[in-house]
Every structure is written in C-alpha cells, then in structure tokens.
Specification:
Blueprint: H1 2-8, E1 13-17, H2 21-31, E2 40-45, E3 62-64, H3 71-84, E4 98-99, E5 103-107, H4 115-128, E6 139-142, H5 145-152, E7 161-165, E8 169-171, H6 173-188, E9 192-196, E10 200-206, E11 217-223, E12 228-230, E13 233-236
Parallel strand pairs: 1-2, 1-13, 2-9
Antiparallel strand pairs: 3-8, 4-8, 5-7, 6-7, 10-11, 11-12
Helix pairs in contact: 2-6, 3-4
Length: 264
C-alpha cells in the first residue's frame, strides 16, 4: 500500500513523526526515489537525544528471521536477509550489526496445528523457491527434546519437537538505528531537516469538501509550543505514542511482554 501511495503522490514537503525504525526507513526510501528528488523532508522527534532512548527501536537486539507462520511476513523477511548478510563496513550487517548463529523454534506435543508447524512449512516453500539465499540444508527438523538440546546447546529446553533454521540470526537494534540515522543524514543533505525535542501536540486537518464527497486531509502538525508545520504528506510513525494523536480504539490494541536479562 505504501508503495502505491509513494508512486502516486508528488510532494513538495513531507513531515514524519519520530526518528525510530519506521520513520527513518520510510525517510530513506523517499530519499532514494527519483519521484521525490525535489521534495524536502522534515523528521520530528520528541526526544532531545537521537536515537530516542525511549523508542522501542533502540534496544539490545532483534531476531532477523523468515520463521513466521504468516507467509507474507516470512517472504518479506527472507527478501531482506541478503542485505543483513552484507557485513562490509557500509553494509547493514557490518561492524557487528548482524550475527547469524541460527534460530530454534519448538512446540509442545499437544500443539498439533502450531505456529512452529506453519512457520516450518513457509520457510521450506521459500527455500525451495530459492529466495533470500536460504536452502533446505539450513533447516533441521528436531523430533525430540534431545535433538532440541543438541541444537540449542542447553540442557534445559522447552517444547517436545521443533526445528532449527541455521540461516536466521539477530541484529544489534540500537547500532542499526544509529547506522540508519547516519545514512539518512548523509543522503538527505539539504533536503532533510531533523528536529529533535519537538513533541507533536496534534495533527492538522483540512475540512472535508462534502459536495465533492472528499475526506478530511491531514495538512501538517502543531507542536507543543503551538507552532505549526505544514506538509503535503504527513507520515505518522509514532509507535506506541500513536493513540495520543489519532483514535485507534477498535482498530489496534496495545500489548506487552515480560522480559528478563540473564548472564549465561
């Protein structure tokens, strides 16, 4: 959908909220498209420090895998993996940003139609299609706990069976955001303005034309100091702060996961 929107719109000024993974990656995509070579882009982030230490993108690690039960996610992730495997200094996986030790997924015996089963089906099909450099030899079926212990290298494991994908890995999330921010600044030059410490108070809308049956159009943002920024395209990439700017009731639900860090 974003691909279609980007190709149809020719904008003189774009404003994006947040310098997180979605805000920065969208900016990088716009900067690299010839259709927007004359457009100017403004990134707004509430944090005075960038990358934003409170942003969910700025974290210790993210698993890079095609191991998803949803086929679309699996394909998208696998298409991106060759970029992660570029470990040159200027590559996405360079300077220790990406590591590929493999990924083990397991399920209990009672979970007959499990996430793991669907995930394995998807990566097998994608490997057979030759996508992302993944071949079937990197997928190892783990029929019992002993096989899981051997693959994971740990005696205490969960699940009764599963599989290992030795073509999956993990990325240093914070280092990747730092790298992307530097890349955006380098490629943006005089077309890009990054404003930190700018919290958006509300979105600005143009009243709908009822005669033309048009919807209200977002025309910019108002900041906490009541100043405004107008733009031909506003991209909201505020993550968990999005409900403070638009009503997401009935359309999205926030969830959380308990986490713990242990020395092993």
């Amino acid at each position: 959908m974003l691909e279609q929107i980007f190709l149809k719109l020719k904008i003189a000024q774009a404003a994006g909220t947040s310098a997180g993974v979605f805000g920065l990656s969208t900016t990088l995509s716009l900067l690299r498209r010839p259709a927007y070579s004359n457009s100017k882009i403004t990134i707004l982030d509430a944090s005075h420090t960038l990358p934003n230490p409170s942003g969910s993108s700025v974290d210790s690690s993210r698993i890079i895998r095609a191991d998803y039960a949803h086929a679309t996610y699996a394909r998208l992730a696998l298409e991106a993996q060759p970029l992660w495997r570029d470990t040159s200094d200027d590559g996405w996986g360079g300077q220790g940003r990406y590591h590929e030790p493999g990924f083990v997924l397991t399920a209990d015996a009672k979970d007959v139609d499990s996430y793991v089963k669907k995930s394995l089906h998807n990566v097998r099909e994608l490997a057979q299609a030759g996508l992302g450099g993944l071949d079937l030899s990197k997928l190892e079926h783990l029929p019992n706990k002993e096989a899981i212990r051997k693959a994971s290298g740990h005696s205490g494991v969960s699940g009764d069976s599963g599989y290992a994908n030795w073509g999956s890995g993990w990325a240093d999330a914070q280092a990747c955001i730092v790298y992307t921010l530097a890349l955006v600044k380098k490629e943006g030059r005089d077309r890009l303005s990054i404003r930190s410490g700018c919290k958006v108070r509300r979105l600005l809308f143009e009243s709908p034309d009822h005669e033309q049956k048009s919807l209200a159009r977002c025309t910019g943002v108002q900041l906490e100091d009541l100043s405004t920024i107008e733009a031909g395209l506003v991209i909201l990439a505020a993550g968990s702060w999005s409900p403070s700017l638009i009503d997401l009731r009935g359309r999205a639900m926030a969830t959380g996961h308990s986490m713990a860090y242990l020395d092993i």
